[in-house]
Amino acid sequence: MKKCINCGKTLPDDAVFCPWCETDQNERQEIEAPAKKNWMVYGVLIASVIVLLTVCLLLYLKHRPETIEGGATISYNDGKTEWTVLTTFDRISLTAGIGQENIDMYLPVDSDSHIYDQLYALRAEDARDMEAAAAAAEIFYEQVESIEYITDAPSGKNALSVSGPARNTDMLPQAVSLADLHYFPTNGKSTLTWKIHMKNKDTLILQHTMSVTPQEIISVSDEEYPMETAQQLNELLKTLEDKYPHDVIEIILPAVTYDEPVQIKNRGFNLTGTVEGGNATTFTETLEVFTRNMQITEITGVNFEGSGGNGIVAHEGVILNNCLFFGWDTAVYGQEGSWPMLSGVEFRDNQTAFLFDSSHATCSNTGYEENVFENNGTAVQLENVPGQGTLEFTGCRFEGNENDLINNSSYTVEGL
């Protein structure tokens, strides 16, 4: 027997209904309805994850390390500044903001030489402003982790060799880095590669070529070509320039006086004076050297007798050996692009004997040995000299000059 679940009356065990209170004797169980899923929350979460992943991807693509390859000039944006990065052998390319893809060098047999491969980084406003270019080089260099310099030149005797690369603010503050190449006439063509590793993990690769060809030495005298007057000499220089564009040309000048201006253009010559019958090779008007691309002119044993004006005006490297200058307003004037080199030269009775005013040069020699400066207004005037360092006037004699030295350059001077 069992009792009613509602009123407590006694009921048979199998009773499903209480006749007294009419209560169903089966117990009911409440079943909870399944919870509804919040699909909107899930959608928001999924969308957020997608957005986050997209942002991360975009940030990675924006800041991932890049490798930028080019020839002698590339454009590079470091995230703050747009740079033109270029490599060149001649700083004239710097003012144009374009690298030098190839340089052809010519060397006499059994000789060797050096040249600097130069790396620059410029902003748009820097190309023609040397101070701004130097500041830009410093800013860019601070972002550099390391620099490699690679050549494909074979090894062995008289092989192309490299010192550096290294930054040299004393020599060329506008350059980010310099590689000193020691080359020989048999080196042929070499591919030169700059590999710049930035601190942000970007890599910049610049590449250009250098070709070296042996030169023949061509000797010319007045027995073969007329050169008695300045007009004839100017015509001869043009003829030889066209006929022998790359060989070494040595001209033996007759013992005559050239009383009109002479210009050496486009390529260098070696001029050697002579003495005959009490006469010597003499210039009484300006000799101007306009050569470019490391075409050096060497002048030996020539007199320059002036009555004012300029004796020699150089726009490229010029070497003077055992020459005499007197009577000029400025005897030797090294203008932009030049580096005059003097050895055994006599300067007498000039207003200014040697004036150096050039902010860049493709060649240099800081030694000025065995020169004589007598009775000049100013013996040596330094306005601008490329780079920084010391000019050495070893064994020179300074007598009777109003000023032995006026130095407005960054160089120190020894020997005065």
Strand-helix topology:
Blueprint: E1 2-3, E2 10-11, H1 39-63, E3 67-69, E4 73-77, E5 82-88, H2 92-96, E6 102-108, E7 113-122, H3 130-141, E8 144-151, E9 161-166, E10 177-183, E11 188-198, E12 203-215, E13 217-221, H4 230-243, E14 248-252, E15 257-258, E16 262-264, E17 270-272, E18 275-276, E19 279-280, E20 282-283, E21 287-289, E22 297-300, E23 303-305, E24 310-314, E25 318-321, E26 324-326, E27 330-334, E28 340-343, E29 346-348, E30 352-357, E31 372-374, E32 378-384, E33 390-392, E34 397-399, E35 403-407, E36 412-414
Parallel strand pairs: 3-12, 6-12, 13-14, 14-17, 15-20, 16-21, 17-22, 20-23, 21-24, 22-25, 23-26, 24-27, 25-28, 26-29, 27-30, 29-31, 30-32, 31-34, 32-35, 33-36
Antiparallel strand pairs: 1-2, 4-5, 5-7, 7-10, 8-11, 9-10, 11-12, 18-19
Notable characteristics:
single chain, 416 residues, mainly beta, Immunoglobulin-like, 2 domains, seven-stranded parallel sheet, 36 strands, rod-shaped
What does this protein look like?
- It is a single chain.
- With 416 residues, the protein is mainly beta.
- The protein has 4 helices and 36 strands.
- The strands form 8 sheets. The chain has a 7-stranded parallel sheet, with no helix packed on it. Strands 16-21-24-27-30-32-35 form a 7-stranded parallel sheet.
- A hairpin with a 6-residue loop joins strand 1 and strand 2.
